[in-house]
Amino acid sequence: MATVLVSEAEKVYVLHGVQEDLRCDGRERKDVRPIVVETDIVTHASGSAHLRLANTDVLVGVKAELEVPFPESPNEGRLEFFVDCSANATPEFEGRGGNELATEISRILTRAYRDPQVFDLKSLCLLPGRQCWLLYVDILILECGGNLYDAVSMAVKAALFSTLIPKISVTAVDGGEPELELSDDPYDGNKLVDLLERAPVLVTLSRIGNYCVVDPTPEEEACSSASLVISVTPKGKITTVRKMGAGCFHNETLIEAMAIAVEIGKEIHEALRIKLQQENRMGVQREKFGFIK
Length: 293
Description:
Blueprint: H1 8-19, E1 35-39, E2 47-53, E3 56-67, E4 78-85, H2 99-112, E5 125-127, E6 131-143, H3 148-162, E7 164-166, E8 168-172, E9 178-182, E10 189-191, H4 195-198, E11 201-208, E12 211-214, H5 218-223, E13 226-232, E14 238-244, H6 251-282
Parallel strand pairs: 4-6
Antiparallel strand pairs: 1-2, 2-3, 3-6, 5-6, 7-10, 8-9, 11-12, 11-13, 13-14
């Protein structure tokens, strides 16, 4: 993750602000910065979203393709995440600098969506053992301004919500072999409508001194000894937890941090639900572009 250099005096200033529940940008410890999200903006994609959280900028595109199910799960489709850390986001991503971060983000998203109560992969199966939908979720990090995991998870949920899976009918032909017929209408398809009530977001809590803050800035991340990345569903269920950094969490601090993550996660889900429903209503009026205009 992109890091900034912070002097010892600045670290003390940040620490004292967190202790007094007044952070450097005027927020309290549980406050999240404003979020701007747009959906269905990229052409040639089944779904897409552009999200900006302060200076963190993320673009997500979803592509639905027909594939053969894995032998060990013949009744399930697949959901795969790919992350590209643009060198324009930070100089640290030049060359192969962003590969480790990209792999870590992909892994934690995979774990967050693995729960059947979060994403029903069986709904993506067309012919058990023969054909299923594979959803490629491509994530492009355009700019890093802190709290990257959370921003990516929100953009992924928005892109999946806007995804239109083409309508396919299964018919039997001579010999009893089934045949798939794709609808000629590009707007004839099905959306993953239950995602708003099931799909998780990631909530990062960074420990600074004896307190945890949500939505950390790059300066706060540099002052943090350890962070927790917690996946929370709209109903408050935790699907995965990942500790980052060399520091540790005492039992009481860990329990408190998880409770805060559930509280903040529910608030983010509700705000995102309202925004995505607004986007869904105005989606037919939005002009698509090959990239962000």
